[in-house]
Structure formats: C-alpha cells, structure tokens
Amino acid sequence: MTDILLEVKNLKKHFVQNKGFLKGKKSVVKAVDGVDFFIYKGETLGIVGESGCGKSTTGKMIMQLLEPTEGEVFFEGANIVEMPPNDIRHLRKEFQMIFQDPYASLNPGMKVREILREPFIIHGYNKKDIDTKVTELLKVVGLNIYHADRYPHEFSGGQRQRIGIARALALNPKLIVADEPVSALDVSIQSQILNLMKDLQKSFNLTYLFIAHDLSVVEHISDRIAVMYLGNIVELADKQSLYKEPLHPYTQALLSAIPVPNPKVKKERIILKGDIPSPADPPKGCVFHTRCPLVMESCKTIKPQLKEVESNHFVACHLYNK
Amino acid sequence: MVSKLLEVTDLETHFISDDATVKAVDNVSFYINNAETLGIVGESGCGKSVTSLSIMRLLKNTPGKIVGGEITFLDQNLLNLSEKEMRAVRGNQIAMIFQEPMTSLNPVYKIGRQIEEGIRLHLKLDKAAAKARALEMLELVGIPRAKDILNEYPYQLSGGMRQRVMIAMAMSCVPKLLIADEPTTALDVTIQAQILDLMRDLRKNSDTSILMITHDLGVVAEMCDRVIVMYAGQIVEEASVLELFENPQHPYTKGLINSIPKLGNYTERLDSIPGNVPTPENMPTGCRFAPRCSFVMKQCLSEAPMLKGVQENHSCRCWLSEVEKND
Predict the structure, then answer these.
(1) A187 touches chain B (CB under 8 A)
(2) I want to staple B112 with a disulfide (CB 3.0 to 4.6 A). Which of A46, A177, A289, B150 is the partner?
(3) What is the model's pLDDT at position B325?
C-alpha cells in the first residue's frame, strides 16, 4: 500500500470584501469552498480548471501562504494548519513551490548564485557546503556553473523557470506545488520543462501537485486529476478514466473544448453557454447548473457531494445519484 | 475563380535603434485568397505580430520601420498610401482584433460609442442608424442584453464578452480582411470554444478572409485553410493545413507538432526542441534554426537556405528537403 503524503480535508477560503463605504456591507468571495483530496507519495496530482476556480488558492493554502478559513491540511499525518509558525518554518523545507511567472518570481537584484544560496542560509547550512550544492543544483536543472554569476534578466523564460525549479529543489523537498509552471512559456520550451520535471521526479522521488488550466499538459504529467469549478472539485479520477470516460458535464465540455492539433479530427463539441458566475455570488445548489446542458430541477437547490461512483472515480453530480 | 485579396511581397520590417538593427520580419512573402483563412504560427519573437502590424501600417510610434517590399491589397500597394488614405482602409476594408480585449477597448467610453465611431466614419451613417447597426452587430456576435451593453463600459464585461465586442466592432463595416492576432489566447478554454465557434459562423455567412495569428497549433488545425510557419523573422514552411500536419517538412515544424502533449496519448516523454530562439544579436549566419536542429549538416552552418517548393502548394526553407529532391 502506498503512503499518503498530503491530505486536505474540507478546505475553504473565503475572502471578505467591504462593499459600500458607509453602510459597511460585506460580500464574501468563496474562492475555495470545501475541497477534499489526498496525494500519494511519489505521484503527481493535477488540478485543472479555468480562471477563478480556486486552483491557485488551494495551492497557496497548502503552502501556508494563505490561511484557510476552514479545514485541515495534513502533511505526513500532521495538521499543518494548527502548527505554531516556528514549526512550520522548519517543515517548509519539505514542501516547496514553483510559480507561474518566471519573470516575477525571481528577485531581479540578486544573482542566480545568491538566489540559490538563500534557502541554505535560512536553514543554517555550512558555508562550504553551500557552494557545492549550488553547483550541483544548476547541473541538475540543465544550467551551467557560469550561469551562477548572472542576473535573472540575462536569461530566457525557459532558463528562468529552470532557476525557479532549482530553488524549489534546493532543500530536497518531498512535495512540490507547481502553479502553472509552463503556461508562460513557448511550446518548444514548455516540453523541455515538462520533461525536466518528470526526470527530477524520478531521480529525487518527488511528489507533485501540478496546477494548470491546460488539460493536455495536466494529463501528460499527472497520475490523477482533480477538476475544479467555482471553488469546488467536480470530478477526481486517474487520468485514463478521466479522459476516456469523463462523468461530470463540466469535464465533458472542458475536454471537448480543447482544439485538437489534427485537422482531420472533427470533434463533437459541447459549447457551454455564458460565462463563469462570479464567486462572490455563486449559484445555489450545484455551482455548475447555470451552464450545464443536462440541468435538472434538483440541481438548482441541492448541492451535490463528491462521491465515488466507480472505483477511484469521484464525481459531484446529481446525474450519478441513485 | 479564386483571386488574391492580399499579396505581401518581400516584406522587410526592421527595428532600428542607435546600436543595432533587428530584422523582425525578413523577406516575407505570402498571399491570402478571397474567403480564405490563413494561419501564421510561431513562437514569441518570430515576427508574426510585426507582420500583421506592418500590413495595417501600425508601426508609426515604434522604432519599427518597413524598409522594403510591397503589400498589395485590392490592386493597390498599401505602402504607397498616404496616412489619410490608409485611415480609410483601416477598420473599413481591413479590420483587426487583438489578443487582450481589455487593453484594446478604451476604458472611459461606453461600448456603444466605441462601436459607432467606426460605423459613422466609414459607412457615413447618422447617429441613429449607427446605433442601430451597433446593436445589430452585438446581437450577431451573441451578446445577451445587447441594448443595455451599448451603455456599459468595458470593465463591466467579462473577457469573453469583451472579445465579442471587439469582433462586433471589427465586423461592423464588413471588412474584406480580418486580422486576428491571438484572439483567444487570453481566454479560458470553454470561452475560447465559444469565440472560435463565433468566428467560424461569421466566416460562413460572409466572404471575409481571415489572417489568424497564433502560437496554438490546435487553433490552426481547426480554423485555417493554409498555414505559414515562422521562425526568427522568416517563413520556414508554407502548406495547406492538412498537408502541414500530415507531411511536415521543416525540422522546426516537426518539432513544434511533436512537442505539444496530445490528449489521450500517453507518452512518457515529449519531444522537445533543445535550446532557445536565437537573440537578434546572435543570429546564426547559415540557417537560423541550425543551432537547435537535430538534422543539422555542415552546409546549414554556413549557407542560409531559401524558401523553395517541395510540392505543389508546399514550400520549405531547409537544405534537407533540397537534398531529398536531388536524390
């Protein structure tokens, strides 16, 4: 039996906005509204969804960069939400993050060497060891030692993302949360980074939480995939069954909406009507019912729960309630 | 009979600064037939957007300058037109939609006023007729509550709605050519599907030609009749869409097609193109793709290949396809 590295239970993040200057009205944006999932050691769980679905917020809560409104995050069995800050600081070396924008996530005033030295300094490594570690790191991500004395602006987007990956790897973490790590990159560079991440996973026995909007990228790298819509997980399954037999109408529409790079394929396309509702005023009942082509009366009032309908295939939809 | 609507011949657009000249578009020639959709694909910096800005002559306030070539549209060379004559073409016979609908709409004017502006200018309609036309266009592109939207500001709309407004504006004067520069890149997949669907409908119901600029091979496969692949300012391959995906000739095109993950296709590793796009200062002397090419030969490093026909309606800029032809 494989061990569970990370488990998330009923995780919620509600942002409170002040609305109206004098009356002090408040509106609540339910960015993440109760998600549950777990990640096995050594696997890649992909989270996919469109803008505003809460996928990044979920990643940030796991990283403890945002405080959850409610819910628990267990890392190797310990609830890190309730942990005192000092303990979390020590534990942080076990979970690291790779960010979307390799331009914004590297300090432009620091040389690559300084960027990569920082995690070691914070965690009290011996000065002599640090330099060999930095050299090793650069090599592991496919850069050269002469790159160490350059500034971030001297690199291309793909190379910068390699630096970001090196920084995340520095302290030998167990879990890496990668938030849209390739969406700012050109296609030919994107595949380099995806291959690198797969190689590193093997050599360092890493576990990934891979957050992205591009279903083909997520499908390529993940073992299991969670589909999010308006702060909720609507479907969770291993990638083969999710692709071959998507159950939730949203997943079906999402899969059919992707343009296929093959002019001979003529797809049956499900085109969803309208826009994603605002998370400040989400629909009652099932959050997807306003755009769902298969909507029923019960969808408008009762919120469906995520249920296992086939082995390891979870879906939150009334169509599968018997 | 199929006739050419636009023909670009030997276009050279350079960006000139004090210490360097960057050949952003280098010797580019292509044509678009009536009612045809031509795609230009390539990665950032390949010159695809500069090509479209050159056609529209929108490089005035940039260091960019068209230094050579001809752009023939309806039998006149756009490069010889005065700025005033060009204004009568822009938005009227050639319209353009951009990647980022928020920055291409004016945030302080109501939607209605922005659409009516072009209609009144080009179609010479009065205020009431222009408003009616704007309303008709908004309904055509599938905007709900079109009447109310005329009086709303861009910030009140979602990204997909804004792109619909841009398309309504572009189509309002019934242009002969629509240039779409990454029209769906900033949108979510389900919204992208809506917009592509809308563009397909518009194409069916009018004989507008489309120049579709994108980096997404999926969008190309679904929307285009013919495709041009650009790399480092040059066209490296040109073919019909079926031919390009079935029988790609240039190693760069092959690399691009193989480096995208395909749904339902569980490969352990993706093919990738090693290295990065060369910077303008370090442009290779021979073939520009040679440093990244896995089929590189001695000849590639010293001599630049020309764009040559490999078959009817299929041309490629590669020494390899010439070697094969001679065998």
Answers:
(1) yes
(2) B150
(3) 61
* Residue A216 touches partner B, C-beta closer than 8 Å: yes
pLDDT lower than 50: segments of chain A: 1
Of A176, A211, A216, residue with least CA distance to A197: A176
Q: What is the pLDDT of residue A101?
A: 83
pLDDT of residue B2: 64
Spell out which residues of chain B touch residue A159, defining contact as CB-CB under 8 Å.
276
3-state secondary structure chain A: CCCEEEEEEEEEEEEEEEECCCCCEEEEEEEEEEEEEEEECCCEEEEECCCCCCHHHHHHHHCCCCCCCEEEEEECCEECCCCCHHHHHHHHHHEEEECCCCCCCCCCCCCHHHHHHHHHHHCCCCHHHHHHHHHHHHHHCCCCHHHHHCCHHHCCHHHHHHHHHHHHHCCCCCEEEEECCCCCCCHHHHHHHHHHHHHHHHHHCCEEEEEECCHHHHHHHCCEEEEEECCEEEEEEEHHHHHHCCCCHHHHHHHHHCCCCCCCCCCCCCCCCCCCCCCCCCCCCCCCCCCCCCCCHHHHCCCCCCEEEECCEEECCHHHCC
Question: Are residues B260 and A264, on separate chains, in Cβ contact within 8 Å?
Answer: no
CATH number for the domain that contains residue A271: 3.40.50.300
In this prediction, residue B188 carries a pLDDT of: 87
Distance separating alpha carbons of residues B94 and B170, to the nearest angstrom: 9
To the nearest whole number, what is the mean pLDDT of chain A? 91
> Amino acid identity, residue B246?
E
| Structural domain of A273 | 4-320
Which residue of chain B has the CA closest to A251?
B190
- pLDDT bin (cut points 50, 70, 90) of residue B128 is very high
B43, B46, B51, B54 alpha-carbon torsion, rounded to 10°: 120
Per the prediction, chain B carries an average pLDDT of 91
Question: Quick one: residue A286, left, alpha or beta (phi over 0 = left, psi -120 to 50 = alpha)?
Answer: beta
| CB-CB contact of B278 with B285 (8 Å) | no
A144 touches chain B (CB under 8 A): no
pLDDT of residue A17: 79
Amino acid at A92: R
* Amino acid A1: pLDDT: 46
The domains of chain B are located at: 254-327
Separation of alpha carbons B73 and B78, rounded Å: 7
Comparing CB atoms, the residue among A188, A260, A271 nearest residue B273 is: A188
Give chain A's domain count.
1
